């Protein structure tokens, strides 16, 4: 049985929650017997790449223009799906979900995963916000099944659209703790003496809040490491880079993947996410899988993780964040607490369980002819 995936940029060295979700989920879906083809956007996939492991990749043209890129790609993608005729079309995110009625008219079985109300992101203008709201509306109304990644999104869809959904949260792999420190040496870092944030450099991740709070706390011997591409050319990225230069002891590490990122997680003193918008934050789950203490803004998706109250601070309250950073910098590292965090997160957020729950939704829509039989990769 074949599932076609629409709504992700690609699966090769890309930073983003939806891309991470898709990469992890569909690796497991292949093991469960599905043939998976991901429709990638042309700016993010080299022409010669046709697969990522056993996941097939199909490159479809899209303009590298904010706003137009997902719309054009989704329109072309759904037409391609109408020709190829997969058993299922799985659309990720509410922007691409604009094409759900077209997919239904083409006779396709459609599932939409709602990763969060993207129209709340600071970067979008009025027209883009309207398109995203229309995408949410059409996706939730016309999909054969709806998957949401958090209880907050579930309650929103029920209240606004009167539709029920399958709640399947994000997962996390067990943290692959690294002993090597080459990445730390590259950036002049000392193990357990730096705060870490891993995210795109965009307004809703609120790097400026973190930089200013870190500068005010001035923890002796500590640094702040921001992992994410600060060379995007956006006004916010330029402001973050300038603020980092003024603050001092702030490392803009750039985009990291694989072993380099694992080293930074493995040796960090704590993880901080001051964001104003999330779906269900994979970055926090990853940090916990490496045993890191976490500080997070008190938005509903972060609260849904049910971390201890001491882990949260009011969103946008730089003074409160300053106090939390200062206190954490004076807290002795606790290896037993780190191990407990690893056990806690991997027992609750497991990609294999996510795949099995997703398989059950697929089977309900396609029919009972799909069995759950794992196979090795």
Order of helices and strands: EHEEEHEHEHEHEHEHEHEHEHEHEHHH
What's the structural domain tally? 2
Query: Kindly state the mean pLDDT as a whole number?
Result: 93
| Helix share bin | 40-55%
Ordered list of secondary-structure elements with their pairings:
Layout lengths: L1 E5 L10 H15 L3 E7 L9 E2 L2 E6 L7 H17 L3 E5 L7 H6 L4 E5 L11 H17 L2 E4 L2 H11 L4 E2 L14 H6 L6 E5 L8 H11 L5 E5 L7 H13 L2 E5 L3 H10 L2 E4 L8 H8 L4 E4 L2 H4 L8 E2 L4 H12 L5 H14 L2 H16 L11
Parallel strand pairs: 1-2, 1-5, 2-4, 5-6, 6-7, 7-8, 9-10, 9-12, 10-11, 12-13, 13-14
Antiparallel strand pairs: 3-4
Helix pairs in contact: 1-14, 7-8, 7-12
Can you characterise this structure?
The model has no long low-confidence stretch (mean pLDDT 93). The protein is globular. It is built from 14 helices and 14 strands. It folds into 2 domains: 2-171 and 350-366, Glycogen Phosphorylase B (Rossmann fold); 182-348, 3-Layer(aba) Sandwich (Rossmann fold). It is of the alpha/beta class and 377 residues long. The protein has an 8-stranded mixed β-sheet with strand order 3-4-2-1-5-6-7-8, with helices on both faces.
């Amino acid at each position: 049985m074949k599932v076609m995936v629409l709504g992700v940029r690609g699966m090769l060295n890309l930073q983003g929650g939806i891309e991470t979700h898709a990469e992890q989920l569909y690796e497991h879906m292949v093991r469960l017997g599905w043939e998976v083809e991901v429709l990638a956007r042309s700016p993010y996939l080299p022409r010669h790449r046709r697969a990522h492991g056993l996941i097939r990749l199909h490159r479809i043209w899209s303009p590298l223009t904010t706003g137009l890129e997902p719309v054009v790609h989704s329109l072309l993608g759904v037409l391609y799906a109408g020709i190829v005729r997969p058993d299922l079309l799985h659309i990720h995110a509410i922007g691409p979900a604009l094409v759900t009625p077209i997919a239904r008219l083409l006779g396709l079985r459609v599932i939409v995963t709602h990763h969060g109300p993207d129209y709340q992101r600071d970067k979008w203008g009025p027209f883009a916000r309207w398109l995203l709201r229309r995408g949410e509306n059409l996706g939730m109304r016309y999909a054969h099944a709806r998957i949401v990644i958090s209880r907050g999104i579930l309650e929103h869809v029920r209240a606004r659209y009167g539709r029920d959904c399958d709640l399947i949260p994000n997962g996390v792999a067990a943290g692959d703790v690294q002993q090597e420190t080459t990445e730390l040496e590259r950036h002049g870092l000392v193990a357990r003496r730096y705060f870490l944030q891993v995210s795109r450099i965009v307004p809703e991740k609120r790097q400026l809040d973190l930089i200013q709070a870190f500068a005010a706390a001035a923890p002796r011997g500590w640094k702040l490491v921001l992992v994410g591409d600060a060379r995007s050319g956006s006004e916010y990225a330029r402001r973050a880079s300038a603020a980092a230069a003024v603050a001092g002891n702030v490392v803009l590490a750039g985009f990291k993947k694989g072993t380099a990122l694992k080293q930074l997680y493995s040796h960090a003193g704590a993880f901080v996410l001051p964001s104003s918008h999330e779906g269900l934050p994979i970055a926090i789950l990853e940090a916990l899988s490496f045993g890191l203490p976490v500080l997070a803004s008190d938005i509903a998706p972060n609260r849904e993780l049910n971390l201890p109250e001491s882990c949260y601070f009011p969103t946008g309250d730089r003074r409160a964040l300053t106090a939390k950073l200062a206190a954490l910098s004076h807290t002795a590292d606790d290896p037993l607490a780190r191990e407990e965090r690893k056990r806690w997160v991997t027992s609750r957020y497991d990609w294999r369980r996510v795949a099995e729950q997703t398989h059950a939704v697929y089977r309900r829509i396609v029919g009972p002819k799909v069995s759950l039989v794992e196979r090795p990769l």
